Amino acid sequence: MEESKESEPMKALWLENNQISLREIPQPNNPNEALIKIRRAGICSTDLELVKGYYPYTGVLGHEFVGEVVNASDPAWIGQRVVGEINAACGKCEACLNGRPSHCEVRTVLGITNRDGVFAEYTTLPIGNLHRVPDSVSDEVAVFTEPLAAALEIQQQTHIKPTDRVLLVGAGRLGQLIAQTLALTGCDLRVLTRHSYQRDMLSARGIRFIPEAEIQPRKWDVVVEATGSPEGFNLARKAIRPRGTLVMKSTYAGNITINLSSIVVDEITVVGSRCGPFEPALRLLERREVDPTVLLSAQYTLAESIKAFDHAAQSGVLKVQIEI
User: Does residue 95 sit in the same domain as residue 152?
Assistant: First the structure.
């Protein structure tokens, strides 16, 4: 693999001290990883929370992307259009050796922890993190692979039966994808919505929504919490039946108060859910069983990336993408 010249500059969206700026930084140079030319990237809630200071991070933002491999130790990857898993693992620690690489003790996380992200002209990732994108999947659709995989992780962790009553609390960016994937199981699904545009998007897919007033307490077999708010958690906790499963599909800024005694008494299974499987996500996109394009609110260029973040932070805006 030829090493990229460290002195070659590239444009990137940089986060430092809760401020984002478009600047020139050296092109990444890691001979042990594939060099990827970013084609398109998406702004997600985590990116917006990082700007607010949810987690201390300095560097290039972004982790949802599609790109083209321009240099790699394996020539077969060069020229391939790819998406990439965001956790780069060491392969040697206890977690990695026991099949939990996404919980590697020294992992770096694309655009989140100790690894520059994808709102830039180039990034690098280990070849093992990459997945080829089918020709029939467009760039704007491929960018949704990572959040769609996160939605599918729920079904990796929890067996959802067609007879289950399932409540999804939250119909935002990730919630809409979760709703589409849960609907494929044939379960009796309802989605809590607060806005008419959320209801319209669900109705277009034949997915039923429910107002808060109609949510029966202690009746739902599986409840997925996807708001990241204390209010959403409290509502989800009240809805779950004894011996039901509560799936936490959000990261929470700050602390929330939980009555652990009630969870013990009701024998509630609480499942934390994060990253998910890319290959099943790509298959769903290739077969068009899931349509993420309904989430796309706006598109910008990298030169307009600060404006793109301002737009993405507005109420009611779902997905904003940046074309590099």
Answer: no
User: Which residues make Cβ contacts (< 8 Å) with residue 89, sequence separation at least 6?
Assistant: 95, 96, 101, 102, 104, 107
Q: Which of 56-65, 111-120, 227-236 has the lowest mean pLDDT?
A: 227-236
> CA–CA separation, 26 vs 7, rounded Å?
6
Q: Is 182 exposed, middle or buried (0-12, 13-18, 19+ CB in 10 A)?
A: buried
Beta carbons within 8 Å of 181's beta carbon, 6+ residues apart = 148, 151, 152, 154, 155, 284, 290
194 token code pair: 């607060």
In this structure, is residue 280 part of a structural domain? Answer: no
User: pTM higher than 0.85, yes or no?
Assistant: yes
> Domain containing 200 — which CATH number?
3.40.50.720
* Block residue for tokens 């809409």: 176
Give the domain range for residue 113: 9-132+291-323
**Residue 179 in domain:** yes
